[in-house]
Amino acid sequence: MIRWTDEQIKLRDAIGEVAAKTGVDHLERDATGTFDEEGWRRLRDVGLFSLPFDTAWGGLGQDLLTTLYVLEELGYRCPDAGLGFSASTHMVSIGVALQRFGSAALRQRYLPAVCAGTAIGAHAITEPSGGSDVMAMRTTAVADGDDFVLNGSKAFVSNGSIAGLIMVYARTGEAGDVAGITTFLVRRDTPGLAVGQPIRKMGLRTSPLTELFLQDVRVPRDHVVGGVGGGFLVLDHVMKWEILCGFAINAGEMRRRLERCVEYARVRTQFGATIGSNQSVSSRIVEMRIDMENAHKWIFDTAEKLESRIDVAADIAMTKLVVSEGNLRSALSAVQVFGGYGYLAEYGIEKELRDAVGGTIYSGTSEIQRQRLAVLMGLDRPLKRG
C-alpha cells in the first residue's frame, strides 16, 4: 500500500479543486463536440501539464506515481472525460517522449511550452489501413540532405485539430522491421502538413479526433526523436505512460460513478423500499466497487514496477484490460442502476457509457492485449519435446 505524503496530498487537492470547477457544461459540449478551451486554461494555470517533467523545463519534477495520483483525482473531480483524455494525450505524446528521448536542444526549445500547456501536443501513429498493426505503417520518411521528407496519412489523431506540436511515426526502413520506424517532432505550421476536420464519434466527443495528411513535409534531421530507427523504442515507452496516465483518469471516473450510484440507490424507492435493498441492485453496485478497486491496484502496482525498471510488458497489457473492461462494465451498470433516468442524456450516465467504450479500443484493443499476453506466454510457439 502506497502511503502518500502531505506534499503529495496537497498537490492532488490543489489540482483537484480546480478540476472540480471545469467541465460544468460538459453535457452541452458533448452534444456539440466542442473542446473546452477555458477548462484547458484552468488546468494549465494550476500546473497539471507540468507534473512529470524536470524543473529545468518548467516542470514540477514529480515521479510517475505522484502524477497518476493527481490524474486519478482529475478523473474523479472533472466530469468532462474528453478534456481529461486530451490532457493525458498532450502530456504523454510530446512531453514524455521528449524528456526521455529528445536531444538537449529539442527539450530546451519545446518542453517549456509543453509544461505550460501553451503548445498542445498530439501523436500520429495509427493509419487508415493498419489500425493497431504499427509495423504495417505506410507513411514514409526519406532522408534528403539535412532533412527528412515525410509522405503519408494518419488516422485517429487525438488533439489533432488543436495541436501545435505533433509526434509523427514514419517508416525509414523496410516494412515489418522493428528498426525501420523513426519518430519526428513536427510543428503544426510545417508546409505540406494538413489536419482534417474533427471527426464525429461515439464518445469522448469533447476531445477532437482528426486525420493527418503529409505531402512532402520536410522535417529537419535534428527533429528526429530517439534516433533514426529508434521509433519503436520511443513508442513502447510512450504507450506504457499513455495506458497508465489515461486509465488512471478512468479509475477516478469509476470512483465518482460508484459514489453517485450508491447515493441514488439509498434514496430511490420502489415498491416501498430503497432500490439498494434489492439484492440484484446491491450486487451490481458491489461489482462496480470491485472493478474500481482492481483498476486502482493494477495501475499503481504496474507503475511501481515500471519505476523500479522491472519488465512490465505483461502487466501493462493486463492493466489495460482490467481497467478498460472494468470501466465499461461499471458504466453499463450505472445505466442499469439509474434505469430510465440512466438512459436520458440530461443525467450524463449514458455519456459515461459512450465514453467508456473507447477505452477497449484505443491504445491497443482488448483483442490485441490478449494476443500480446498469449505471445508472452509462449502460446504462439509449439512445445519442443525430447
Characterize the largest beta sheet: strand count, sense, and whether it forms a barrel: 4 strands, mixed
Number of strands: 10
Oligomer: single chain
CATH architecture of the largest domain: Up-down Bundle
Average pLDDT reading: 96
Question: What share of the residues does DSSP label as strand, in percent?
Answer: 5-15%
Distance between the termini: 45 Å
Which of globular, elongated, flat, extended, rod-shaped describes the shape? globular
The helix/strand series, from N terminus to C terminus, equals: HHHHHHEEEEEEEEHEEHHHHH
Radius of gyration: 21 Å
Write the CATH fold name of the largest domain: Butyryl-CoA Dehydrogenase, subunit A, domain 3
CATH class of the largest domain: Mainly Alpha
Strand order of the largest sheet: 1-4-5-8
Number of helices: 12
Supply the CATH superfamily name of the largest domain: Butyryl-CoA Dehydrogenase, subunit A, domain 3
Derived from helix and strand composition plus strand pairing, the structural class reads alpha+beta
Helix content: 40-55%
Description of the molecule:
The chain has 386 residues and is α+β, with helices and mostly antiparallel strands. The protein has twelve helices and ten strands. It has a four-stranded mixed β-sheet. Strands 2-3-7-6 form a four-stranded antiparallel β-sheet, with no helix packed on it. Helix 4 (64-77) packs parallel to helix 7 (231-267), helix 9 packs antiparallel against helix 11 (349-357) and helix 9 runs antiparallel to helix 12 (366-376). The longest helix has 37 residues, at 231-267.
